[in-house]
Design brief:
This protein is mainly β. It has one helix and eleven strands. The strands form two sheets. It has a six-stranded antiparallel β-sheet with strand order 1-11-3-9-6-7. Strands 2, 4, 5, 8 and 10 form a five-stranded antiparallel β-sheet that branches.
Length: about 140
């Protein structure tokens, strides 16, 4: 069986798109912006509405985004706002052009069932994983 449908589902253009966490128990967001200080804000919503910031990100993996090694960045106080300048080397250079972080369904407050990432510039990819129902790719329900 293929990974798509068995292990994950993916939304390639996911900036400001609320991902429901009913078909998976976690979503990993990959944010890429070549140059400039990307600011990504994590929000939770109720069926895609009533969005509020979600301060749950405590680990961010950074990379060049073009095959570079990943660096782990641990955040003492979980954040809703992720900024390239907050990670070594502390600026907007290539080592932090790409950031990846995971939001678990358990991170959402009671009554909230979607999560979104909004960026000021760049690309956001959402990978829904730990699927609750495995099926072949052509039988996957629409993600949004």
């Amino acid at each position: 069986m293929h990974g798509l449908g068995r292990l994950f589902n993916v939304l390639v253009t996911a900036d400001n798109v609320h991902i429901p966490l009913s078909d998976g128990t976690a979503v990993t967001f990959v944010v890429y912006e070549d140059g400039g200080d990307t600011q990504a804000t994590v929000q939770q919503g109720i069926n895609g509405a009533s969005a509020v910031d979600l301060a749950c990100v405590d680990t961010v993996w950074t990379s060049t985004g073009v095959g570079g090694a990943w660096s782990k960045n641990t955040i003492a106080t979980p954040l809703a706002l992720i900024q390239k300048k907050d990670f070594p080397p502390g600026d907007d250079t290539a080592p932090t052009d790409c950031a990846a972080f995971t939001v678990h369904a358990a991170d959402l407050a009671d009554g909230y069932n979607t999560v979104a990432v909004n960026v000021d510039a760049g690309i956001v990819v959402a990978i829904l994983h730990d699927l609750t129902s495995q099926r072949s790719p052509e039988l996957l329900p629409a993600l949004v």
